[in-house]
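Run log, item B.
One chain of 157 residues. Sequence copied directly from the ordering sheet:
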Amino acid sequence: MNQSYSTSFKVDQSPEEVFAAINNVRGWWSEEIEGSTDALGEFKYHHEDIHRCTIQITELVPGKKVAWHIADNYFNFVKDKSEWTDTDIVFEITQKDGKTEVRFTHVGLVPAYECYAVCKDSWGIYISGSLRDLITTGKGQPNQSEQIANKHGIANS
């Protein structure tokens, strides 16, 4: 059984609108991103000294799929600082019953990971909250990790 974290939601917007929103990573995840997020290649994400990663965009299929590979990752709040390294993030876009479904899967983010609870909560907020809002209202809420860190008692030291 695949235990990788996955979540999905449906919206009224077209697959093309959904695809564009996913690739507007600064609009739903973080404004602290270096590099292009809507073309094959690499971008870097960081939030203070808590989390940073290098992401390779490996697949862009307009209106259907976006895939990222985490080439490098660092967390300051877990023993294994490299959790996430060599995992993949996949966004699948499908049409169902007149709606567009977005399925997000972080392949390799499994319950055995120390960061799983924090990461699951974070992705839930970013994907089901911020990305969904960006798609449906045109405005997401990027950079909410301070609230998540505070919720889990992770100090910004």
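Observations after the first pass:
- The radius of gyration is 15 Å.
- The helical segments are 15-23, 25-28, 116-137, 145-151.
Flagged for discussion on Thursday.
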